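Model it.
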Amino acid sequence: MDEPLRLEVIVGSVRTKRFAPTIADWFVERAHGRDAFDTTVLDLADTPLPQDLSSTPGVERFTERIGQADAFVVVTSEYNHGYPAALKTALDTVKYEWRAKPVGFVAYGGMSGGLRAVEQLRQVVAELHMVSIRESVSFHQARKHFDPADGAANDAAERMLTQLAWWADALRMQRRRAPYPG
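Modeled.
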Protein backbone atom coordinates (compact mmCIF):
# COMPACT_ATOMS: atom_id res chain seq x y z
CA MET A 1 0.00 0.00 0.00
CA ASP A 2 1.34 3.39 -0.98
CA GLU A 3 -0.70 5.23 1.66
CA PRO A 4 -2.76 4.16 4.67
CA LEU A 5 -6.35 3.15 4.06
CA ARG A 6 -8.86 5.63 5.44
CA LEU A 7 -11.05 3.70 7.87
CA GLU A 8 -14.19 5.33 9.24
CA VAL A 9 -15.60 3.71 12.36
CA ILE A 10 -19.28 4.65 12.39
CA VAL A 11 -20.99 4.66 15.78
CA GLY A 12 -24.62 3.83 15.01
CA SER A 13 -26.43 4.35 18.30
CA VAL A 14 -27.49 7.85 19.32
CA ARG A 15 -29.47 7.00 22.47
CA THR A 16 -28.73 8.70 25.75
CA LYS A 17 -26.78 6.50 28.17
CA ARG A 18 -25.69 4.34 25.22
CA PHE A 19 -22.95 1.74 25.55
CA ALA A 20 -21.71 2.39 22.00
CA PRO A 21 -18.73 4.62 22.93
CA THR A 22 -17.28 1.87 25.13
CA ILE A 23 -17.45 -0.66 22.30
CA ALA A 24 -16.23 1.85 19.70
CA ASP A 25 -13.24 2.87 21.83
CA TRP A 26 -12.30 -0.79 22.30
CA PHE A 27 -12.41 -1.41 18.55
CA VAL A 28 -10.60 1.80 17.59
CA GLU A 29 -7.75 0.85 19.91
CA ARG A 30 -7.31 -2.36 17.91
CA ALA A 31 -7.57 -0.56 14.57
CA HIS A 32 -4.94 1.99 15.64
CA GLY A 33 -2.57 -0.94 16.09
CA ARG A 34 -2.69 -1.53 12.33
CA ASP A 35 -0.33 0.52 10.15
CA ALA A 36 -2.57 -0.22 7.16
CA PHE A 37 -5.26 2.11 8.49
CA ASP A 38 -5.71 5.80 9.20
CA THR A 39 -8.69 5.38 11.55
CA THR A 40 -11.21 8.03 12.49
CA VAL A 41 -14.54 7.87 14.32
CA LEU A 42 -17.79 9.17 12.87
CA ASP A 43 -20.29 9.22 15.73
CA LEU A 44 -23.84 9.64 14.48
CA ALA A 45 -24.76 11.29 17.79
CA ASP A 46 -22.53 14.18 16.68
CA THR A 47 -23.70 14.07 13.06
CA PRO A 48 -27.28 15.29 12.77
CA LEU A 49 -28.81 14.03 9.53
CA PRO A 50 -32.37 14.94 8.54
CA GLN A 51 -34.77 12.01 8.43
CA ASP A 52 -36.37 13.41 5.27
CA LEU A 53 -32.97 12.97 3.53
CA SER A 54 -32.91 16.60 2.46
CA SER A 55 -29.66 18.35 1.62
CA THR A 56 -28.03 20.51 4.28
CA PRO A 57 -24.46 21.70 4.82
CA GLY A 58 -24.14 18.90 7.42
CA VAL A 59 -25.26 16.32 4.87
CA GLU A 60 -22.73 17.67 2.37
CA ARG A 61 -19.91 17.33 4.95
CA PHE A 62 -21.09 13.82 5.83
CA THR A 63 -21.25 12.80 2.16
CA GLU A 64 -17.75 14.16 1.53
CA ARG A 65 -16.36 12.28 4.52
CA ILE A 66 -17.95 9.02 3.35
CA GLY A 67 -16.55 9.63 -0.12
CA GLN A 68 -13.02 10.05 1.22
CA ALA A 69 -13.08 6.77 3.17
CA ASP A 70 -11.66 3.52 1.83
CA ALA A 71 -13.40 1.27 4.36
CA PHE A 72 -15.93 1.28 7.16
CA VAL A 73 -16.62 -0.51 10.40
CA VAL A 74 -20.09 -0.02 11.82
CA VAL A 75 -20.48 -0.29 15.58
CA THR A 76 -24.13 -1.15 16.08
CA SER A 77 -26.43 -2.02 18.89
CA GLU A 78 -29.52 -4.14 18.45
CA TYR A 79 -32.86 -2.57 19.29
CA ASN A 80 -36.04 -4.64 18.92
CA HIS A 81 -34.25 -7.21 16.74
CA GLY A 82 -32.95 -4.51 14.39
CA TYR A 83 -30.36 -1.80 14.04
CA PRO A 84 -30.77 1.87 15.08
CA ALA A 85 -32.86 4.28 13.02
CA ALA A 86 -30.02 6.84 12.96
CA LEU A 87 -27.85 4.26 11.20
CA LYS A 88 -30.52 3.62 8.56
CA THR A 89 -30.82 7.36 7.97
CA ALA A 90 -27.03 7.62 7.57
CA LEU A 91 -26.96 4.77 5.06
CA ASP A 92 -29.85 6.25 3.07
CA THR A 93 -28.47 9.81 3.12
CA VAL A 94 -25.52 8.93 0.88
CA LYS A 95 -25.73 6.98 -2.35
CA TYR A 96 -22.68 6.69 -4.59
CA GLU A 97 -20.00 7.35 -1.98
CA TRP A 98 -20.62 3.98 -0.26
CA ARG A 99 -20.13 1.97 -3.45
CA ALA A 100 -17.25 -0.44 -4.00
CA LYS A 101 -16.03 -0.11 -0.41
CA PRO A 102 -15.81 -2.77 2.29
CA VAL A 103 -17.66 -2.68 5.58
CA GLY A 104 -17.21 -4.70 8.75
CA PHE A 105 -19.46 -4.90 11.79
CA VAL A 106 -18.95 -4.76 15.54
CA ALA A 107 -22.26 -5.48 17.28
CA TYR A 108 -23.52 -5.63 20.81
CA GLY A 109 -26.82 -6.33 22.47
CA GLY A 110 -28.69 -8.78 24.63
CA MET A 111 -28.67 -12.53 24.10
CA SER A 112 -28.10 -12.23 20.34
CA GLY A 113 -25.15 -9.87 20.76
CA GLY A 114 -26.43 -7.69 17.94
CA LEU A 115 -26.19 -10.42 15.33
CA ARG A 116 -29.75 -9.88 14.08
CA ALA A 117 -28.92 -6.23 13.44
CA VAL A 118 -25.81 -7.26 11.52
CA GLU A 119 -27.72 -9.71 9.34
CA GLN A 120 -30.18 -6.96 8.42
CA LEU A 121 -27.33 -4.55 7.73
CA ARG A 122 -25.68 -7.04 5.38
CA GLN A 123 -28.78 -6.87 3.16
CA VAL A 124 -28.78 -3.07 3.17
CA VAL A 125 -25.07 -2.66 2.40
CA ALA A 126 -25.36 -5.14 -0.47
CA GLU A 127 -28.00 -2.87 -2.00
CA LEU A 128 -25.57 0.04 -1.58
CA HIS A 129 -22.96 -1.94 -3.58
CA MET A 130 -20.67 -2.34 -0.58
CA VAL A 131 -18.62 -5.43 0.23
CA SER A 132 -19.61 -6.94 3.56
CA ILE A 133 -16.69 -8.52 5.43
CA ARG A 134 -17.52 -12.05 6.54
CA GLU A 135 -15.83 -11.80 9.94
CA SER A 136 -17.60 -9.72 12.57
CA VAL A 137 -17.36 -9.04 16.30
CA SER A 138 -20.26 -9.59 18.65
CA PHE A 139 -20.72 -8.85 22.35
CA HIS A 140 -23.56 -10.66 24.10
CA GLN A 141 -25.08 -8.86 27.07
CA ALA A 142 -22.34 -6.26 26.73
CA ARG A 143 -23.46 -4.01 29.60
CA LYS A 144 -23.10 -6.92 32.04
CA HIS A 145 -20.22 -8.90 30.56
CA PHE A 146 -18.03 -6.63 28.41
CA ASP A 147 -14.37 -7.51 28.89
CA PRO A 148 -11.77 -5.67 26.78
CA ALA A 149 -9.43 -8.65 27.21
CA ASP A 150 -11.95 -11.15 25.80
CA GLY A 151 -9.77 -13.43 23.68
CA ALA A 152 -12.52 -14.45 21.26
CA ALA A 153 -13.52 -10.83 20.61
CA ASN A 154 -9.93 -9.70 20.14
CA ASP A 155 -9.27 -12.58 17.75
CA ALA A 156 -12.43 -11.79 15.77
CA ALA A 157 -11.43 -8.12 15.54
CA GLU A 158 -7.97 -9.04 14.26
CA ARG A 159 -9.40 -11.38 11.61
CA MET A 160 -11.92 -8.78 10.53
CA LEU A 161 -9.28 -6.04 10.29
CA THR A 162 -7.05 -8.31 8.20
CA GLN A 163 -9.87 -9.04 5.76
CA LEU A 164 -10.96 -5.41 5.75
CA ALA A 165 -7.44 -4.24 4.83
CA TRP A 166 -7.25 -6.75 1.99
CA TRP A 167 -10.61 -5.72 0.52
CA ALA A 168 -10.04 -1.99 1.07
CA ASP A 169 -6.68 -2.11 -0.71
CA ALA A 170 -8.03 -4.17 -3.61
CA LEU A 171 -11.11 -2.01 -4.06
CA ARG A 172 -9.19 1.26 -3.74
CA MET A 173 -6.80 0.14 -6.49
CA GLN A 174 -9.71 -0.85 -8.72
CA ARG A 175 -11.65 2.39 -8.08
CA ARG A 176 -8.53 4.32 -9.10
CA ARG A 177 -8.18 2.23 -12.24
CA ALA A 178 -11.79 2.51 -13.38
CA PRO A 179 -15.00 4.01 -11.95
CA TYR A 180 -17.37 1.53 -10.36
CA PRO A 181 -20.03 0.64 -12.97
CA GLY A 182 -23.02 0.71 -10.61
